[in-house]
Amino acid sequence: MSILSKQASHVGAALDLQPVLDAVDAVLGAQPRPVELHEPRFGERERQFVLDCIDTNWVSSAGQYVTRFEQMVAEATGARHAVAIVNGTAALHAALLLEGVQPNDEVLLPAITFVATANAVSHAGAIPHFVDSTWDSLGLDPMALDEHLAAIAVHRNGGWINKETGRRLRAVVPVHIFGHPVDMAALGTVAAKYDLVVVEDATESLGSILNGQSCGTFGHSAVLSFNGNKIVTTGGGGMILTSDDDHARRARHVTSTAKKSHAWAFDHDEVAYNYRLPNINAALGCAQMERLPAMVAAKRELAERYLQAFSQFPGARVYREPKGAQSNYWLNTLVLDRECAGERDRLLSALHGHGVKARPLWTPMHMLPMYRDCPRSPLDVAEDMYRRCINLPSSPFLAAGGKENANKI
Amino acid sequence: MSILSKQASHVGAALDLQPVLDAVDAVLGAQPRPVELHEPRFGERERQFVLDCIDTNWVSSAGQYVTRFEQMVAEATGARHAVAIVNGTAALHAALLLEGVQPNDEVLLPAITFVATANAVSHAGAIPHFVDSTWDSLGLDPMALDEHLAAIAVHRNGGWINKETGRRLRAVVPVHIFGHPVDMAALGTVAAKYDLVVVEDATESLGSILNGQSCGTFGHSAVLSFNGNKIVTTGGGGMILTSDDDHARRARHVTSTAKKSHAWAFDHDEVAYNYRLPNINAALGCAQMERLPAMVAAKRELAERYLQAFSQFPGARVYREPKGAQSNYWLNTLVLDRECAGERDRLLSALHGHGVKARPLWTPMHMLPMYRDCPRSPLDVAEDMYRRCINLPSSPFLAAGGKENANKI
Fold first, then answer.
1. In A125-146, which positions are buried (b, 16+ CB within 10 angstroms) versus exposed (e)?
2. Is B44-289 the same fold as B2-40+292-400?
3. Cα(A300)–Cα(A333) distance, rounded to whole angstroms?
4. Which residues contact B248 (CB under 8 A, 6 or more apart)?
5. Where are the domains of chain B?
6. Mean pLDDT, chain B, integer
7. pLDDT of A160 higher than 50
8. Do B86 and A284 touch (CB under 8 A)?
9. Is the CB of A279 less than 8 angstroms away from the CB of B233?
10. What are the chain A neighbours of B348 within 8 Å (beta carbons)?
11. Engineered SS bond to A336: which of A340, B55, B70, B245, CB 3.0-4.6 Å?
């Protein structure tokens, strides 16, 4: 709420664009244009590990780098189990199935997220149910969730039902937007009250910490993404994190065609998926994970530079991590004052013209045609965010002001 | 039928195992044990292309190797369009959706196939309907399909319905088992008679040819696999082939989150998937595709050596490609005489003990618990095949009798 109250004092004419371009230039320094939103950099270790896969003729799943990558991610996050998956969407789909989400259940998630969150819910046969966000974290608002459930949830036949649709309310998927942790204690309290399973969408928040605990370890299970635009990339890839031994075993089973272990027989015991990560992708991930602390530090340094460049700035400011959090600042976010919201697209156009590949928030889920008729809470904050937020280039190597050092980050 | 009539003359005692091991040894030569069923070999081009991805920091989807890989596969098969997909299961799932398969439709497929074929049908919300196989190709029997449909299909409300279940019969998925082409002309005739869409499962048959035409170009659409055990591998990967421009455009759209093209906005217009192949995997595929003709030649040479080793053999013979076909012989198949069927597991045990990673056919789909209650035709031939067939190690580099030459094959 602090941002909103400060902005109320700025009674806006049109946003002056040139100072924004100048402030961004001051951060990006000598970086050649165009500057992409988020790009990886690879070094000698990536070369070495990938060539090792090739030279040992082992590129497919069940390779040694898959196991090593899982161990590195488990160690870095403190998760008991990490199961490598072909991508983040598949990981969330599988995690929802493993947590007991059934066809026609409703799954609560923020309207402000990448479409994959809602798609994975749909892939499980469930119905996305959109909840408002909070400026406190940019993610799902536990208080709005609580108020909404008080209005629509009834306890019936041993479960919580959406009285407006008659469907079972089964799970909630908090998303740590741009790396900023959702208030998981508050969310957990609401989820417990309504018997909701918490599947944490930590696809953007590898390396983010809340009150000393890593994102991806708060929910009943969690998922990560290693898409090409993430802090650690495997080309395409994902991970399921869980503290439950049986859940981890089941995750491996249903993501590798549910094949029963046998020297030669091909027996499978349920309808299942081909969702495991190939070894060559995991090899990339192993090399990247060695630099995770350096990349988080670089991204936090870059965020600090954006924050400085836009401090005391008329009409906009850069979003700062929530209290108690150390965010990985996956994507830096420029928040326009409310009075300047109408300038968003003009600013995006100017930034692109200037070789800066900025972008708005994802279009909120309830504004997309296929999710228009899904159940939802009031979404005033989500719509306000959508009008006012712009992501700025956030690759870790930009921290050095254009002086890249792939070996360091 | 020729195999069966020959075998009728052999009235069997137990199969003598040592001569089988000796015949396999004669083919495998000095190859170090254990000999896996199918393994890739990589060379300088794989190293070069993969390092190029790393050095240009481009490992994710929409990279230049993805486009190049698609072009190479299209050229090699004669398909008009090739769309790279994260794996074969995902490719078949997407292809079925694109061909209009709806939840609760029935899709006909052989009971003898890898479980992924049936799983992809299930992922589309449809019901697998199993059909018998023929010794002519090891694949789906067009004549059995025709007889079965004559018994169960009725034309009602503009479509063909399974009168026993009341469900719509929508598509048929012929699988070119172990690279041996199904009789696509006969199958096409039956499919046309019952308005069935033909989605060709060519996951095992890249490089196989039937009457001068490549597998993967007969159906309304087709899918390939580049799993680690396939003739060309990308670690994990798949491809949709189609001659239809609109279908290809739709395939790209729904496998990449249905995002509408825009410089910055994130708008999506349908529930969709994250199914595209990462660039680093496609890079491997490009290198492998350069050697496809050499690999097919090597695999055909290996098949010829197995055929020779088991010609005039008491109790078993090696399966020869169908008439009119040039098979890629993905997996060589030892067919036990009917009288020796009971010896299958004893032989598998002996082969494994001898360092030869042979395996039986996949357990037929109707014998798996999750597909036990699916509709089906009589499956006598499928069950007979399952009892009598064993796959033998078939990696292309085995053609040289253990003298590997990665640069050649």
1. ebbbbbbbbbbbbbbbbbebbb
2. no
3. 13
4. B80, B81, B83, B240, B242
5. 2-40+292-400, 44-289
6. 94
7. yes
8. no
9. no
10. 264
11. A340
Contact residues on chain B for A88, CB-CB shorter than 8 A: 274
Which residues of chain B make contact with A273, given a CB cutoff of 8 A? 89, 119, 123
Contacts of A87 in chain B (CB under 8 A): 86, 274
- Sign of dihedral through CA atoms A46, A52, A54, A55? positive
- Which tens digit of pLDDT belongs to each residue from B147-183? 999 999 999 999 999 999 999 999 999 999 999 999 9
CB nearest to B281's CB, from A54, A280, A361: A280
A380 versus A29: the higher-pLDDT residue is: A380
Check whether B28 has a pLDDT greater than 90: yes
> How far apart, in Å, do the first and last CA atoms of chain B sit?
35
Q: Cβ–Cβ contacts within 10 Å for residue B33, how many?
A: 10
Q: What is the pTM of this model?
A: 0.95
Indicate if the pLDDT at residue A184 is higher than 60. Answer: yes
* DSSP annotation string for A128-139: EEEE-B-TTTSS
Q: Are strands B197-201 and B221-225 parallel, antiparallel or unpaired?
A: parallel
C-alpha B208/C-alpha B215 separation (Å) is: 6
Q: List strand residue ranges (DSSP E) for B27-102, in order.
A: 81-85
Q: Is A36 helix (H, G, I), strand (E, B) or coil?
A: coil
Token pair of A248 as six digits: 């981890």
Rounded Cα–Cα distance for residues A119 and A125 (Å):
10
Q: pLDDT over 90 for what percent of chain B?
A: 91
The tens digit of pLDDT for each residue in B45-76 reads 999 999 999 999 887 767 799 999 999 999 99
Does residue A34 have a cis peptide bond before it, meaning omega lies within 30 degrees of 0? yes
- Averaged pLDDT of chain A: 94
d(CA A247, CA B131): 36
Q: Which residue has the tokens 């970086």?
A: A31
- Residue numbers in B near A236 (CB within 8 A): 60-61, 86, 274, 276-278
Contacts with B89 (C-beta within 8 Å, 6 or more apart), sequence order: A273, A274, B116, B119, B120, B123, B238
Separation CA B309–CA A141 (nearest Å): 70
What is the CATH code for B2-40+292-400?
3.90.1150.10
Please name the amino acid found at residue A393. Answer: P
The C-alpha atoms of residue A107 and residue A112 are separated, in whole angstroms, by 15
**Among B219, B266, B269, B260, CA closest to B91:** B219
Q: Where are the beta strands (DSSP E) in A104-256?
A: 106-110, 127-131, 153-156, 159-162, 169-172, 197-201, 209-210, 213-214, 221-225, 238-242
pLDDT band at B409 (very low <50, low <70, confident <90, very high): low
The minimum CA-CA distance between B115 and chain A, rounded to whole Å, is: 8
**Domain A2-41+292-400 bears CATH identifier 3.40.50.720:** no
| pLDDT (average), residues B267-292 | 97
Q: Is it the case that residue A3 has pLDDT exceeding 50? A: no
Interface confidence (ipTM) of the complex? 0.94
Please tell me the predicted confidence (pLDDT) of residue A58.
83
A188-194 long-range Cβ contacts below 8 angstroms, 24+ apart? A188/A218, A189/A142, A190/A142, A190/A145, A190/A146, A190/A149, A193/A146, A193/A149, A194/A149, A194/A153, A194/A160, A194/A169
- The pLDDT-based confidence of A57 (bands split at 50, 70, 90) is confident
Pairs of CB atoms within 8 A across A/B: 190
The CATH number that domain B44-289 falls under is: 3.40.640.10
Task: Please report the pLDDT score of residue B408 as a whole number.
Answer: 53
| Res A334 pLDDT > 70 | yes
- The fraction of chain A above a pLDDT of 70, given in percent, is 94
B274·A89 Cβ contact <8 A: yes
**Contact (CB<8Å) A274/B360:** no
